[in-house]
Structures are given as structure tokens and as C-alpha cells.
Write a structure and sequence with these properties.
Helix 3 packs parallel to helix 5. It contains five helices and seven strands, in the order βαβββαβαβααβ. The protein has one domain: HUPs (Rossmann fold), CATH 3.40.50. The chain is globular, with a radius of gyration of 15 Å. The chain has about 150 residues and is α/β, with parallel strands linked by helices.
């Protein structure tokens, strides 16, 4: 089985990684760890700076995501998986669907940020897009409910 796991530097991604390492998968399952850096600043978090991210900040973010991917690969290998990591630049929604198609993934696993309302409308939903457009099954791992 070929599993594509989408990660960023969030607790939601950690939950997705934990899910993959906890589940029983067929022998020989392979995991592709993918993180996608979006090269445009967010209008909500930095309205005055909306637009392309300067090259030095982009490279710093790529380095951070590379570390996330490397740590995740180590975790997966310790759990007995064969893994490969990638950091891409682009729209995470499109990149996930494209890599799933190219790799003929059997499953995509990603965490849900749980945004609703205006935040979901403005920020978009990677998980919604991937569920709708992926060529394979998609597992969206939600955060634990708070009491």
C-alpha cells in the first residue's frame, strides 16, 4: 500500500502522523511524506504584506518544513515503514492531488485544522479540496475534542 501523508508544522499534522504510525497496514506499505510551502503571504495573518514572500523567508520556511519532513520520516522508519520525504512549493491542494496521481497513492492522510465559517471561506480548506479531487481515498484526521 502506498500512503501519502501531508504535513505542515502544526499539531494537526502531528495527529495525522500518529494515526499512520498507530494503524496496522499491509506488509511492505510505503509512506510518502509531503509538505508544501505556499509562496504567497496570507491576507488574514499579514494583510500589509500580502503577496509573494521574499526569497530569504521562503528559503527559511522551506528549511523548517524540511526538518518537519525529516523528523517524520525518522518516526515512520522507527515504526517499521519505508518512507520518502519531499518539500514542494506551490498550492498545497493542487500539489497533494498531483503527487497522489503521479505516485498512484492508495491513500492520502492529512490533518484537519477544523476551521469553520469565515476563516474556512477565506483561507480555503485543503482537506475539502483533496477529498473532492484526489484519485484515491482520503483520511482526514481531526484533532481531539476539548471538554
Amino acid at each position: 500500500m502506498k500512503i501519502l501523508i501531508a504535513l505542515d508544522a502544526s499539531a494537526h499534522s502531528e495527529r495525522a502522523l500518529e494515526f499512520v504510525t498507530r494503524m496496522r497496514w499491509p506488509a511492505g506499505s510505503r509512506v510518502i511524506v509531503l509538505s508544501v510551502l505556499q509562496p504567497v503571504a496570507n491576507l488574514l495573518t499579514a494583510p500589509a504584506e500580502a503577496g509573494p514572500i521574499p526569497a530569504e523567508l521562503l528559503e527559511e520556511e522551506r528549511r523548517k518544513l524540511g526538518e518537519v519532513v525529516a523528523r517524520s520520516e525518522n518516526t515512520l522508519r522507527e515504526a517499521g515503514f519505508s518512507s520518502e520525504g519531499r518539500v514542494l512549493v506551490g498550492d498545497p491542494r493542487d500539489a497533494l492531488v498531483q503527487v497522489a496521481q503521479e505516485e498512484r497513492a492508495d491513500l492520502i492522510v492529512l490533518g484537519s485544522h477544523g476551521r469553520t465559517g469565515l476563516a474556512k471561506l477565506i483561507l480555503g480548506s485543503v482537506s475539502s479540496h483533496v477529498v473532492t479531487h484526489a484519485p484515491c481515498s482520503v483520511m482526514v484526521v481531526k484533532a481531539e475534542r476539548r471538554s
